[in-house]
Amino acid sequence: MSRSSSTSILGISAFYHDAAAVLVVDGEIVAAAQEERFTRRKHDPSFPANAIRYCLDEAGLVPERLDYVGFYEKPFLKLERLLDTYLACAPRGFRSFLHFVPAWAKQKLHLRREIVKGLNQDKGLAGGGYRRQIVFIEHHESHAASAFFPSPFNEAAILTMDGVGEWATTTWGTGSGNRIALKQEVRFPHSLGLLYSAFTYFTGFKVNSGEYKLMGLAPYGVPRYADCIREHLIDLKPDGSFRMDQSWFSYCDGLRMTSHKFDRLFDGPPRAPEAPITEREMDIAASVQEVTEEAMLRAARHVSAETGLHDLCLAGGVALNCVGNGRVLREGPFDNVWIQPAAGDAGGALGAALFIWHQLLDRPRTARTRDSQRGSLLGPRVSDEDIRALLDGVGAAYREYSDDASLCNAVADLLARERVVGWFQGRMEFGPRALGARSILGDARSPAMQSVMNRKIKFRESFRPFAPSVLRDRVHDWFDMRPGEDSPYMLVTAPVRENRRKSADEDGCALRGLDQVRAVRSEVPAVTHVDHSARVQTVDRDRHGRYAELLRAFEAKTGCPVIVNTSFNIRGEPIVCTPEQAWRCFMATDMDALVLERFLLLKEAQPRTAATDADAYLDQFELD
Q1: 260 is catalytic
Q2: Which ranges constitute the DSSP H helices of 308-393?
Q3: Catalytic residue chosen out of the listed positions 17, 302, 358, 544
Q4: Is the backbone of residue 362 left (phi > 0), alpha (psi -120 to 50) or beta?
Q5: Which CA distances in Å does 105 have to 108, 136, 222, 553?
Q6: Residue closest to 283 by CA, chosen among 228, 333, 225, 234
Q7: What is the pTM for the complete model shown?
Q8: pLDDT digits (tens, 9 = 90+) for 48-95
């Protein structure tokens, strides 16, 4: 690839959580991956050396052939915010500042040098390594760019919401053609993302990791604390702006997210991690989820009124709240909503690269009817030859299929018999969701499937919901989605259609708390949440290839175009990246079958010597 005929831009996010690298060549997203997939450390924040190496290899580039490198935030602005925050909390905050900020500041002040060092770490670089410009883009500009530039819209409103960037925590603006403009922001310490994270911490889950657990727990509870949150914690304005009373929180100056005063308001101290989940935690989850959804809806309505635009783009960690997204889509004023699949910090790397290409270099966007993220299938792929060599090397028993139809028919038969299948195909997903490339699949019609997959395969809490994959042209037969609505990235919830629901029997009506998970609520109980909702992924041949063919084969056998799709990993483990990782996960869990591209493995046929101790495997990963 000649540098004179193309422009190569590397985007990087790092040093907070979910480090990632993205390569854009002449405006096309060529490769993208999170560092965690290579290091096996979930949400790895370290410099994404492995992800960068993958991106460059995918395009056949070396660092010196890059034209630009973009970083997803401006470290000096973040340092300014830290200084102001800690010094404002004196003397307690000043002591925290003395311990924490100098080491952090040293890293950030030398960030340019660290990026160059990281890029050039491989030996023998013919051209002496990368020596060109490094562009630092504001955090929420990176989010906004990642939301608008890959979207299918030529003009749209933009809303970004997260914990905190440099100063901003929520911004809105507009995108038109090849430009974005942010017009208004809410600043730290007032943060919808940190409000949600505070309750994540208080209910015993891990901050920056367990927020989706809090969202999944919410339907089991009653929002009896919602008015309390509105009265004491957050002053939510009609336009979606807000201020938070910091006396209830400790994230500015302490090691806790919440203050001891917070404990009194919510009937006791925080739940200890791994302690039993009580009705209190369920009600707290329901309450903060209600307030968060209300804030998202108010912000969307305000942005619509201010811009007069019909389409909306979302990014930032709060945009991973698929329940809130679903309400914005169905109850909000916009005709269409597009959400960045890697809405959190990983997606900032993409935004940084696209911001340079479009906004700084003034390169046009081409008109399109579909987003340019290519199904977010932007990660590494593996050849059949490499898979065959691995399987032969470990002594695995397998069958190789010569055509997709035969393979998909065999796998569909396994699924129809309620077997759990590991599914490894094509390029790995970019973002937190498994989208049919690195997935564990099951029969959505099975009342036992949710419990089996949570306990015996994922080793996680029983209440955790699973998402359905459904053929795009059949989605409206099963879920209440708007005409023309598409959800390839599993980022919105939708109700199961009334005619697919089942009335709970007497035993089901008597269930309380987490026991409600056992009630059969629809024809696809494994993916129907307690409020009759589901986090839908639509599947089509253009984006998903062999995965769409599998769903067709399953429908032909069962009459149902819906299957369970969850990420190919266990609790605390990043999604698998390589066939070796998929094989080890398969052998350490109760998965019944494994599909690696065209190779099908049955657990019962594997040599006993290949078995992996489940406890030892689980111990490799930090519980999330």
Answers
A1: no
A2: 322-331, 345-354, 384-393
A3: 17
A4: left
A5: 5, 16, 43, 56
A6: 225
A7: 0.93
A8: 999 999 999 999 999 999 999 999 999 877 666 666 665 565 544 444
